[in-house]
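<context>
A single protein, sequence plus fold
<entry> Chain with its tokenised backbone below
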Amino acid sequence: MGMDGGGGGKLPYSYAGVGHSDGKLVKSFSRVEPRKFGMGLVAGFLLVTCAYFSTAKFDAIHIAMMSPISKDGIGSLVSGAADTSNSKQKLDLGAQDRNALSKEGSKAEVLEKDDGNTSPSGTDSGRNAPLEDTMRDETFVGDSGDGGGVGASSAAANPAAAGGGRDEVPAKDDDATTAAVLPPVSSEEAGNGTQESGVLEDEELQVQEEIAKPLSKSSNGSAAAASTSSGNGSSASVVHSDPAVLPAPVQQIPPTTKEVKAVADQQIPAVPEVKQADSATPAREWKPLCDLTSNRRIDWCELDGDVRVLGANASVTLVAPPGADERTFREESWRIKPYPRKADPNAMHKIRVLTVQSVTGDAPACTERHDVPALVFSDRGYSGNYFHAYTDVILPLFLTARQYAGEVMLLVTDFQMWWIGKYLPVFKSISNYEPVDLDNDPRVRCFRHVQVGLTNHDDFSIDPRRAPNGYSMLDFTKFMRATYGLPRDVAWPAVTAGAATNATASSSKPRLLLIARARTRRFVNTEEIVRGAEKVGFEVVVSEGEHEVAPFAELANTCDAIMGVHGAGLTNMVFVPTGGVVIQVVPLGGLEFVASYFRGPSRDMGHRYLEYRITPEESTLIDQFPRDHVIFTDPEGVKSKGWDSLKDAYLDKQDVRLNMKRFRPTLKKAISHLRKAKAN
């Protein structure tokens, strides 16, 4: 520090010339004015004095924090230190309090981590705070006047807080004492909760003291934030920070507002609310295993859990889980025939009875365990009839099993090898596993889910509103065409019989498949019908059908329309391309109700349905009975005598001789529909 001489001259400490004498140096000093020299001495004395008292005061506070002082003495110690140098002490305390916040959080995480529990605030927590740093933090917290901490006044004013309440309560932003101690920070920092403070409960502190001892030597850089107890007796949760970026504990000069804001933005992430899962999910309330009332066609059962199927004794058993009570499990026993004709004794008398039960005692031990569900059903009843094979087994099997995409086992009671062989492509498309002959299976097969009896809506019909995945009859026909590898999905232009594998080969005329029955309800004037259909514009194919499904399915898929007297042959409309025509000829005898077996389903498949009801003159019954016979005049009376009477009179003894002049308009409607569909 240089000063001017009296009116100018050289600087007093000049080393420009080498070899100056001592006399010149004394002369330079003598030129300094006494008044200025005295002021310099006073200024230097003041600087040394301030430095001395600042150092002594900080050491006193540091020693106080390191020593085990009582709660009553904490406040007086900090207050006395503050009286010595008010403005500077506020600054120092602000820096220390910020560090205290970080160390309290570090202590909390050490406890949680050592106990094997996960901190609810995530993984950004501080680690390994020493116990003496924790005590130093509590000294400042006790003096903060924030309604919580270790001070005796706070414990007296809020006994509930000392008891360790759990509800989270935010710290008061407008606390006057906190504002006097802490340096000003930005609003964003305050919003992140960096000024919250508090203490843990007595039990936790005792554990921490044991944990902190071996960790105190390696924890100088840890940091976190502790929460504050509120006046209603609740204790806030701990908010953690990353210790790697927060300031070191010995830093006494607080950062500027901009720096504090950056630290707050970077290191105090939002803490999501952690919802603890229930320790035990309530078990589902028990419901009966079987349903005998909701479906008029079939009784069915559904079992979930430890299900054991023993085919040799026709039993399906659900075993009670450990700890089951009367609310979640009950012992039951049901006798079920898994075939969808429960109201028809003729169909049901050959169906094997299965025992479906739930037990809490001993059960047969598992010999095979399966990780796929199982379906139990019968293939007997009327399934020998082509129509009933579809409506009683194949369609319900699709409706029940298709949702599993092949991962389901089929357990068949009343197993008929010839029948399974006839429809084997269907079973292979439904399941990735071979069908099981349940009646002759000695093994105890164990599953997690078993359904006894197939889902069934109505004869040859699916209700998409109740079907799994919203399945419909359109889905069923697509499935059947894919099962047998049929190329045509849409009617006309048709693929010729000789080019069934070539989807591009087509005929200039739509094809009509005429079902020629072999025994009853035959067309007795088939040749006349063929000529009449050809005159209208059809190419006609006549077939009686075959035992094998695949050849007839391929033939039906080459045609755009199918025609026949009411009977099982019309079931092959499932293979006719979508948009085709179905013509059902209804015999004499008030058989409109049985015609519904094909009326609704054909429309659901996307076909145009046409129905032709014959007159007495078109029935061969006119050759057997006089015109005024009851069979013509009172078909309802014949029907009232039962199904056998109806079947004998109108189904088994009647053939059809179509009046082509009367029938021709029906053929014209059919070909008109196909032409219109092709044009569109």
About this structure: Residues 1-21, 60-205, 212-279, 494-505 have pLDDT under 50 and may be disordered.
